[in-house]
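Submission checklist for the structure archive. All mandatory fields must be present; incomplete records are returned to the submitter.

[x] Identifier: Exostosin glycosyltransferase 1
[x] Organism: Oncorhynchus kisutch
[x] Residue count: 734
[x] Sequence attached
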Amino acid sequence: MQAKKRYLILFSAGACLILLLYFGGMQTPLSKSNNRRDDRSLDGHHGSPQWHHFSGSLQPFSPWDQMETEEYNVHISPRQKRDVISGVYNGKRCRMDSCFDFSLCKTNGFKVYVYPQQKGEKMSESYQNILSSIEASRFYTSDPGQACLFVLSLDTLDRDILSPQYVHNLRTKVQNLHLWNNGKNHLIFNLYSGTWPDYTEDLGFDFGQAMLAKASIGTENFRPNFDVSIPLFGKDHPSAGGERGYLKYNSIPPYRKYVLVFKGKRYLTGIGSDTRNALYHVHNSEDVVLLTTCKHGKDWQKHKDARLHDYCHEMLHNSTFCLVPRGRRLGSFRFLEALQAACVPVILSNGWEMPFSEIIHWNTAAVIGDERLLLQIPSTVRSIHQDNILSLRQQTQFLWEAYFSSVERIVLTTLEIIHDRVLQQAARSNLMWNSLPGGLYSLPQYSSYLGDFPFHYAKLGIKPRPKFTAIIHAVTPLVSQSQPILKLLVAVAKSQHCVQVIILWNCDKPLPAKHRWPATAVPVLVIDGESKVMSSRFLPYDTIPTDAVLSLDEDTVLSTTEVDFAFTVWQSFPERIVGYPARSHFWDSNKERWGYTSKWTNDYSMVLTGAAIYHRYYHYLYTSYLPASLRGLVDQLSNCEDILMNFLVSAVTKLPPIKVTQKKQYKETMMVQTSRASRWADPDHFAQRQSCMNKFASWFGSMPLVHSNMRLDPVLFKDQVSILRKKYKDIERL
């Protein structure tokens, strides 16, 4: 019996061995083939996928679920499949040195060309605002032969095929552009990509080697130092200017009524639902208020939660932190809303490349969370110290106003980032981008040293040099030795702080002989204005050796003591305009426009450059930053140049100018002595200045001027004490 069992076991083992060898031997060649294919993949080579054969033309898009056969999955990895879906696989390795032609930028610098709009092509208002911002910028050129960068006139913002803004046949239209060149040196703007249910980053056409300025872009598809991540903004986002941040003053401690708030849609299923569907676990109805609604189909307005209406007016402005979870796509409208409201954003969007991440240090203005750790968010934000909260909140306001408050700001920031890549030797530093007034107002062509910019003095702990250069703007011929310009020249040259006087001769008559000018202790340089226009007084002349510039009209009445005192004040406020003649602006509700007034009131918003001191950098900014259209308007009218300079400086600093000691005889005493008297008394001259105010405000997008009622006088000014005890004793005698 035992022998029979042994034979049976032996026979069974032999049969199994035969079957194993038989079936295993048939599979051996396939295994070797697969190993060889895997070896090639490890070396960086990928075998050609065995695509299905179709009868007829290929469809523009084939869902992956129809092609996921076992044979197909053997030949392509999940990473490759994701790249093909996103539409960026072909240009995945593009960088500036491989997909950008720098030679186009060598001759004419960084110039941007916008393709002319084709007849019959629809364009969204948002894309029209983008193109208008480019055309109004200092980079724009209408000549493609001078261009370094090209922007399509075809609307690429919304590439969701279900959207009414979707542009069809874009692939063919782009390929037919005669300057396309496979997208090299092209920039494509996009806000929405992909569609339901996957919302991939597919643009629906091959953009080749073009750069993307894209919202909701993932870190896996983002090409560093090539693409630009931009914020998601709505169609109602201001085209220019925009509202300022809501932080009017700093409250200490910086806590608000709510710790953490959110309002938005709740997704029960699909992409983006993991986080939003779990928010109710964190909501406590007290200081953590997260409001969502799950009824948001095409008729979502019928079902919207009444509590959501109060979000922007109540909770958003009264919360310390605002939750910004991802939506169907990585970006969210809540992001910009939180920045403007000085509500520190708490980002829950794993894999999102933050807007302008190349230049902005987001850890100084936001809390970057992890979607998988949602339940830890309340305890995390509660643990942040109040000093850090105050710093975060202040930085949100700076970033909002500098880079995100309007479509124009977003577009200009995008162009400046690319500009810095192209002209690497003149690129801005991280401090320029992340501190006031921001990178848009810090032109690196002026200087690469932060200490040359007046608004960085305080951060660097330095002071301006204690000398100034005077520039006297002359427009009338020199016919008498008693003319005001000669008296002014002598008084300014006597100042202990003056190193040079420049006379800008914008008169139609020839230059006076050298002996006609009085002898002075400092050099006097007479420059014959070639163009004879008003804007020439603000050119960045190489002959200005000092940080401070004393700008003067030829008929200004100033004593040496007044000049010294004004300069002493300016040394404490080097980023502002400091001077004597003040003017103001107001809103005329009847005419619904801005008004200009020269009345003596208790406040002012401008200090005229006919007798003012400011930093020489503003000469460079006036000439290089402001568009030629505004400077052309000033030259055409021979007026308003002082108003435009005040607009510019206030836009940079967000501060008013500073008026020094009251001086009523600035213009009045000389009205009857100069040929320019008629210009100041002429009603047309005043009407022109009214018109300039509104045209300037239109270009800036808002009114940058700031009112002030502060006036700085010398110590003991008009006090009933001995005149011998006063440093600036001569001022009171005027």
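[x] Structure attached
Curator remark: Confidence is low (pLDDT under 50) at residues 25-76, 84-89, 666-678. DSSP finds 23 helices and 23 strands in the chain.
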